[in-house]
Each structure stands twice: as structure tokens, then as C-alpha cells.
Amino acid sequence: MMTAICFFDDIGGVFREVFRVLAPSGIIVLGFIERDQKIFRLYRAEPEKGRFLRHARFYTPDEVIHELQNAGFSTV
Question: For a surface tag, which of 25, 45, 64, 73 has the fewest beta carbons within 10 Å of its beta carbon?
Fold first, then answer.
């Protein structure tokens, strides 16, 4: 999932579903815009990107790790 989690209403629910359908040895790969970091600030300042990102919810790495662990992922 590349830059998608910021648009989900319930990332915990999405991660639980991914965990449920993923093969036992499968992995999930995430790329996301970290809240309050450089790319976040740059994107928010660009009017063209801002019109989409104003609907987004951004997370810190700790928040994403917490949600992944709650969904059942043991190695993050």
C-alpha cells in the first residue's frame, strides 16, 4: 500500500482484513506520508495536492506500528 492509508476511514480494520487474507508467510509493504514531517509539509503547501490531501488523515510511524500490531502482525 503506497500512500493509501491516509485515505482509509479505519486503518485498523483494513490492517485486520489484510492480515486475515494474507498467506501465512506473506508480508505487507506500506509507504505513507508521515504526519508533521518534511513531505507532509511540502504536500500540504501545494494547492494542487492540497485539494486531495485535505481529506486525508496522516499518522506517525508509531501509530501505524501500533495499528499493525493490533491487527496481528508480529514483525513490524
Answer: 25
**DSSP of 34-70, one letter per residue?**
BTTSHHHHHHHH-HHHHHHHTT---B-HHHHHHHHHH
Please tell me the pTM assigned to this model.
0.83
Q: Which of 76, 57, 74, 69 lies closest to 15 in space, CA to CA?
A: 69
Strand partners, 2: 31
Instruction: Give the residue extent of every domain in the chain.
Output: 5-71
